[in-house]
Design goal:
Blueprint lengths: L39 H19 L9 H6 L5 H4 L6 H4 L7 H22 L1 H26 L11 H14 L9 H27 L7 H15 L10 H32 L1
Length: 274
């Protein structure tokens, strides 16, 4: 994945100032160093994921191949447990990984997408999108496993649903030509994200025919589609000032949380009556 996160303009400066870029008097974006201060939300998410993995290893989990029981103990997604009240697993599962390679792969993608997307979302927006799309992916995965495959004991874990969610929202946000970024750069960045999402979706679908590794395609698709949906209401306010943009974010994310809660409730009702 060849992104250039240093080349984008900023809608929400990381220093938290009230200034926001407009489309007037646009200067060429300056190159930025990849420091923690440039994308604090991204580094917080990467740090939590790495800390959870280290916590698991220090408690006796195999670094390369955790058992399903170990994954469940540390918060993996299991439909049977979620439907019996452990709804927190829809979120905690996004920070649990099935071995070091799984962790490193997801963190590399999260880091690249985060450095590209956080200037457009802000630190709290970045964290909110990660959580919401990760939960959305796990909810869809749970729905597919329980209603389609009648499997309530499948174990799911990883940040990939949230990573696909970030890709989805970036594809939408980078389509806004009013951003203070040269059009050719916007198109290049958007094309890179689309290629990343498309390639990884194809790889995931290919594992259905050639099951070399187990990939939760439902979580990927769920996170990706929810990311696309989250981006749509944000576009009109991206260049209308910081206050309006943040207000639109709050409304969008609260509405998304309500939708996910409603979807979870309906899913639980369908499983019980099915």
């Amino acid at each position: 994945m060849s992104f250039s996160p240093q080349s984008q303009g900023e809608i929400l400066p990381p220093d938290g100032s009230e200034a926001a870029y407009s489309t007037e008097n646009v200067a060429p974006p300056q190159r930025r160093t990849r420091s923690i201060l440039s994308a604090p939300g991204t580094y917080v998410l990467v740090g939590i994921n790495c800390a959870v993995y280290l916590w698991m290893v220090l408690h006796g989990v195999d670094p390369a191949s955790p058992t399903p029981i170990q994954l469940i103990h540390f918060g993996a997604n299991v439909p049977a447990l979620v439907l019996h009240g452990e709804w927190y697993r829809l979120l905690t599962a996004t920070f649990v990984h099935v071995g070091l390679i799984h962790l490193l792969t997801n963190m590399w993608c999260l880091w690249n997408l985060g450095l590209l997307g956080e200037p457009l979302l802000g630190r709290w927006g970045m964290i909110a999108v990660y959580m919401l799309t990760g939960i959305a992916g796990n909810l869809l995965s749970m729905g597919v496993n329980t209603l389609l495959w009648h499997d309530i004991f499948s174990v799911g874990a990883g940040a990939s649903g949230a990573v696909f969610g970030l890709a989805g929202i970036l594809i939408v946000l980078l389509s806004n030509h009013k951003l203070p970024i040269p059009i050719y750069e916007l198109k290049r960045l958007r094309k890179s994200v689309i290629q990343f999402a498309g390639l990884n979706l194809i790889i995931g679908l290919a594992t259905i025919a050639v099951p070399l590794i187990r990939i939760d395609n439902s979580a990927h698709v769920g996170g990706f589609l929810f990311g696309l949906a989250l981006g749509v209401p944000l576009i009109p306010r991206m260049t209308s000032g910081r206050a309006r943009y943040l207000n639109r974010q709050k409304l969008t994310f609260l509405g998304a949380a309500f939708f996910l809660s409603l979807f979870g409730y309906l899913l639980a009702s369908m499983v019980k009556t099915g």
